[in-house]
Structure formats: C-alpha cells, structure tokens
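User: Assemble these into one structure.

Assistant: Restating your components, then the assembled model:
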Amino acid sequence: MALLTIICYPDIRLHTVAKPVAAVDERIDTLVADMLETMYEANGVGLAATQVDVHERLIVMDISEGRDDPLVLINPKMLWNSSETHLNEEGCLSVPGIYDSVQRHDAIKIEALDRSGNSRLIEAEGLLSVCIQHEMDHLLGKVFVEYLSPLKRNRIKTKLQKAQREGRVAKLV
Ligand code: K1U
Ligand code: ZN
C-alpha cells in the first residue's frame, strides 16, 4: 500500500470533473487500498479520488468510532434527497485547518458500486449523509468553501497560499 499526496485548495486540479470508473478491476482495488490508508493517516472520515489527483468517480469513507468500517462508493448516483436541510460544520483534508457551516440535505438515498463491483443502495442521514454530499461535490470539482461568502473564501485562499509558500501544506502545480 502507499500513502498518496492530498492536493490542497486553491489548487485548480480540485475543480476537475471526475469521469465514471470504467471497470472495477485490480487497478481500482489498489487505488481504494491507497486512498483508505491515506484517509486514515490524515485522520479524515472521507476522501474523494479528486483529492489525490485521480479524476474518476470513487470515494472512500469511514465514520465508525473504531476506524474499522470502511465504505467504498464507486460511480455514486444520487437517487433522492430530503427537502429538509440543515447547517452542518464541515472540514476538508484539502482545506487544512478550516471549518465552517454548510447547508446540506438531512437525508439522501444513493446507488453505487462497492469494492467488489456489486451495486448497493445506501440510505444515509447524520454525518454519513453530510460526508457523502461533501465527497460527491469533490467529484464534481466543487470544494465546500465555494458555499461560503467571497470574503471568507478569499481569506481562506490567502491563508492557504501562504502555508503553501512556507511548505506547511502540499504545493500548487
Ligand atoms: O476532505 C474530505 O473530503 C474529508 C472530510 C469529510 C467531511 C467531514 C465532515 C463533514 C464533511 C466532510 C474530513 O474528513 S474533514 C476532517 C474530519 O475528520 C471531520 C471533520 C468534521 C466532523 C467529523 C470529522
Ligand atoms: Zn473535502
């Protein structure tokens, strides 16, 4: 297994729209293993392939307390979302040290392939629902700071550009 580099906002690669995974094969299995290792090492609860500069529709997650219940979503498709929404505090491994509130659907239903290529229907609420919506945004090239005001977003951009110049987070291309 290998640790992958997580690219940091405002790197333009985070705005790439991911393509569907064509086949759930050995290459994808290795990528899943590497992404899980990278997510656990960074203490995240989710990671989208976009964040490691792979532009295919693949997400890994683990919201369990024991960090021993990984969830793999390949080619996820939103089937339904609740009309009720709430503000939730979010963070992002690509926006280190920044936390802010984003409005998300309370509950969702999605369809996705698992690591074995089997189709699964997932009904989610709470942190799982928030995390899936956050990660599916990454696959569309959207970072959570884009829901914030231009003033907040520019402050975050300036702060992270300074951190990148000083070598405290991954460099821009
Ligand atoms: O970078 C990412 O996409 C992962 C991100 C997932 C996420 C967590 C919480 C809300 C929305 C999206 C993180 O793992 S952020 C770091 C984290 O561990 C965390 C933050 C807030 C609540 C719970 C966990
Ligand atoms: Zn994120």
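Residues 43-48, 90-94, 130-131, 134-135 surround K1U (ligand 1) (CB under 6 Å).
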